[in-house]
Amino acid sequence: MYFCIKQQLNGLTKEEYLTLRELCRIAKNIYNVGLYNVRQYYFEHKEFLNYEKNYHLAKTNENYKLLNSNMAQQILKKVNEAFKSFFGLVKLAKQGKYDYKAISIPKYLKKDGFHSLIIGQIRIDGNKFTIPYSNLYKKTHKPITITIPPVLLDKKIKQIEIIPKHHARFFEIQYKYEMPEDQRELNDQKALAIDLGVNNLATCVTSDGRSFIIDGRRLKSINQWFNKENARLQSMKDKQKIKGTTRKQALLAMNRNNKVNDYINKTCRYIINYCIENQIGKLVIGYAETWQRNINLGKKTNQNFVNIPLGNIKEKLEYLCKFYGIKFFKQEESYTSKASFFDGDEIPEYNADNPKEYKFSGKRIKRGLYRTKSGKLINADVNGALNILKKSKAVDLSVLCSSGEVDTPQRIRIA
């Protein structure tokens, strides 16, 4: 399996920085050349121009000759991927599984834009590698050598990507490396369910009634600080009539994104380690359908949901589950916060075409608490996570349900 490590590319000289900007601009030109070829062929023949044919058309372009041939080919493959996705959506739309209005043909990158440099053929000398140039480009530009992170020196690096950020004010470098899967012998009769949120980022409950909550208030405070500081910078910018994103705003956004990604990575690692240590063989995570994502929860709550990339948590957990041999399930979570797990409520699935009102045995009485029919109080998010697990039918929960008990959740604060 493949994993990625990202880091900011620091320590560049002014000359190296300008060279990278120029290369990323050339890469953008090649992308647009390849895109033009495929678009025009589609408009004229209503067919897909594949990578091989596009390559023979694009390689005569002056921009292609300025970039290392392997890097140029990787960019044309990106064009190929974009159009394969486009035609895939068209096919789904014809089958009635996707909305035609939501599909658009891949668009050109802006004239003053940039594209990533994708290095597929990597030659490492000790702990360094040199960005490959074309023979023509070598004649006029000095080489750029980059030090590889020590953690990757014993790994098989498959691909390196240099990504221009914030209109190429900064550069990020991403290493894609290969690792053999670490399949564990786990118990398929044990499962862990996750209910994602804001203050409680991940409420986790096992099929035997143990529970913990990954605190989300740290992540929330990172976003609140970012929004407040960005509003201050925006106000200063408006007074000075400056257009576009300033350097300070770009740095602020990058700092915020790094902190959020670090917190999410550590959260996912904690959950996976918990599953391995407790021999849990199945992981179930709730997801919201479109109807839930589009409801208005108020300005502040909506902003928190937008700024916390819950989708990233799902993706990272799914990938790690595959790596360690944990069976991963995504479960639609409509009505899981309203139904009473210990009262055995049936949990329907929301139908946007035929919405109905349902009555449940218990109810949420105040912030964070759910009261069952018998008057028993439990953590509301724990009740939701239990219902997600019940709805998935991943494991038998009859013993847990009849016991009427679940542990008080331990709050975990990620450092």
Automatic annotation (TrEMBL):
One Gene Ontology biological process: DNA recombination
Which UniProt key words apply to this protein? DNA recombination, DNA-binding, Transposition
Specify whether DNA-binding is a keyword of the entry.
yes
Q: Which Pfam families match?
A: Cas12f1-like_TNB (PF07282), OrfB_IS605 (PF01385)
Q: Show where the Probable transposase IS891/IS1136/IS1341 domain sits.
A: 174-291
Which segments constitute the Cas12f1-like TNB domain?
312-388
Query: Would the keyword Secreted turn up in this protein's UniProt record?
Result: no
What family does the entry list? In the C-terminal section; belongs to the transposase 35 family.
Q: What is this protein called?
A: Transposase, IS605 OrfB family
Q: Which organism is it from?
A: Geobacillus sp. (strain WCH70)
